[in-house]
Amino acid sequence: MASRALPRRSAASIPIDDAIPLYEQVRHRGLLTVAVMGASMMQILDTTIANVAIPHMRASLGATSETVNWVLTSYIIASAVAMPITGWLADRIGRRRLFLGAVIGFIVASMACGAAQNLEEMVVFRFLQGVCAAFIGPLSQSVMLDINPPERHARAMSIWGMGIMIGPILGPIIGGWLTESANWRWVFYVNLPVGLVTLAMTWALLPATGKRRRKFDLFGFSMLALGLAALQLMLDRGAQQDWFDSVEIWIELGVALACLWVFVIHLLKGRNTLFDRHMLADRSLATAMGFMIVIGLVMFASMALLPPMLQTLFGWPVIDTGWVLAVRGVGILVSMAIAGRLTGRVDARWLVGIGLVIAAYSLWQMSHWSLAMGMKPVIVSGLVQGLGMGLIFIPLNTMAFATIAPQHRTDGASLLNLLRSLGASIGISVVTTLLGTNTQTSHADLAQHITNSSVSLIDASTADRFGIAGDTVMAMVNAEITRQAMMVAYIDDFWLMMWITLASVPLVLLLRAPKSGGPQASAADMGH
Predict the structure, then answer these.
(1) 102: Cβ–Cβ under 8 A, 6 or more apart, which residues?
(2) Burial letters for 501-522: b for 16+ Cβ neighbours within 10 Å, e otherwise?
(3) In this predicted model, what pLDDT tens digit does every residue of 477-511 receive, in sequence order?
(4) How far apart, in Å, are the Cα atoms of 310 and each of 317, 325, 456?
(5) Handedness of CA 113, 118, 124, 127 (dihedral sign)
(6) Strand, helix or coil at 457?
(7) What is the 3-state secondary structure (H, E, C) of 288-299?
(8) From CA 251, how far away is CA 298, in angstroms rounded?
(9) pTM over 0.90
């Protein structure tokens, strides 16, 4: 039989395993990096930039102090539910289409949020925005890996990590400035110019990738989505509902545990599961997923504690607080630049271990704060913590993807981003709850020591005889006791985060150092 020439196939129709490595198809890697990071920064900024505008939204949208929190809750739940299917969608419709569609959807949803006239509209539009944001995060990470050869992965992760780590720090500053200089709607409208530039550059420069036929695990996704939604709802509403004194919280906990347990069993035993079991069996990826929870807890929980503490207890203005906390970003930039150069030359596990110790030391510094201090301790500890977090993030992401096949990168990235987000939610809920509980306990302990001898200028036993003046004096004493009790509670939170960080150091031994010519190189060469 005479041989017949096969038709030439486009890059988009070639299966992923046979495709030419993406880094060989990219014409302008630098410009594409700017475009991808523009989308990533736009998405990560929106996780914190809207928090500043919440008090202003309440009056404009006719919401109460409790119902307005659904603006944040809807975004968090949508991101958690949508993120796990990023890999399946990328394989099904192509990563280029999904990335462009997510950016377009994010821009449109942002404009709709800015134009919302009531709370119901805002919650729906924030939900849609959260779905699109869920795809942008993992896709940007996997694209950054694929458009760079294996020897440049550490540098690529340092660039991507800078946006991920610095975005939450800059968000409150930008949000506060936009809200004060214009109004809260510009917190969302600002995404339009950034998004359009990013979209145009990505459209022109991002190559298409192949598609893979991959059956959708509807049962597994349903269990995971219900479990994550219930867990996020419990974490977000726990403090408002007084935690386990509320029937709602017990129901949400039960649904979360039941659905996530069923999902794990299905993942271990089922066929055509949502994630490849072989990918999850990779020791470095599994360990990195555990570390992401710690990073989310330490990074985002401390960022949630510091602004209200500095503004309430120390009386700092919003802008001053933002700029002082932004010093943390300087530490992150410096250490990520160092980590990007050292990864590949030094055992990456040493970098992660040293970074954890430095981060724990910064929390130890914070646990020695007092109400009599100035700005210097906050600046120094923030700089030190930034140095530690940067050393952890880059080597950890490099090792996480060093031993998994390229076609699993998007799934891996979605899991790492999901667990970092869950770690942040868990951390913020825990430290906020402990803050309230420990404040009450410390207040009671301190109040026991208020006697006539400890307050020499006030006779507490006869203050009630002086009417309004006596009440005013006692209110001032009580306010100072509350202030001191809150400082003690903040210090307790810093101690807790320090011990959690130190406890995670031994996990470094489970990581595998990346090897030259590993899976990235061998898999990429399959097309030649």
Answers:
(1) 39, 132, 133, 135, 136, 139
(2) bbebbebbeebbbbeeeebbee
(3) 777 777 888 888 889 889 988 998 898 888 888 77
(4) 9, 10, 30
(5) positive
(6) coil
(7) HHHHHHHHHHHH
(8) 28
(9) no
